[in-house]
Amino acid sequence: MGVDLGSRAGSNGHSFDTVFAPVGSARTFAEMPIEQKNELSPRRHAVDALRAHLGLTGS
């Protein structure tokens, strides 16, 4: 989950990435490298779980 910082910052993302930051962070999702965003992303966790369930590995 995240919080709305009220102003736009960063360029690594789209849509709401520029205004939302993870709870406890002063950096927006758009200011983070993709690797850090993936560590926090519920969608990424769901895709990883699905891939493991299907026996898929790699990128």
From TrEMBL:
Record key words, sorted: Hydrolase
Single GO biological process annotation from the record: nucleoside triphosphate catabolic process
Molecular function, one GO term: nucleoside triphosphate diphosphatase activity
Domain of life: Bacteria
Keyword Hydrolase among record annotations: yes
Family annotation (InterPro entries): ITPase-like_fam (IPR029001), RdgB/HAM1 (IPR002637)
Descriptive protein name: Non-canonical purine NTP pyrophosphatase, rdgB/HAM1 family
